Amino acid sequence: MIEKSDELLYEFFRRLGKNELEEIGLMGGWAVHYLLKNKDVVHIGSRDIDIFFDPAKIKPKVIEEKLKGMGFHPHSTFRWVRIFHSETEKELGLEESKKHPIYNLSYIYFDIATPVKIGHSMPEPLLKKVFKKEKEHVKIKDIQILVPSPKIMIEMKLKSIPGRSDAFKRTKDIADLYALLNSHHELWLTKKGELAKTKGLNKKLVKNFKEGLERFKIDGTIAASATMLRIGQDKLTGLLEKI
Question: I need a surface site. Which of 80, 91, 125, 195 has the fewest CB within 10 A?
Answer without folding.
Answer: 125
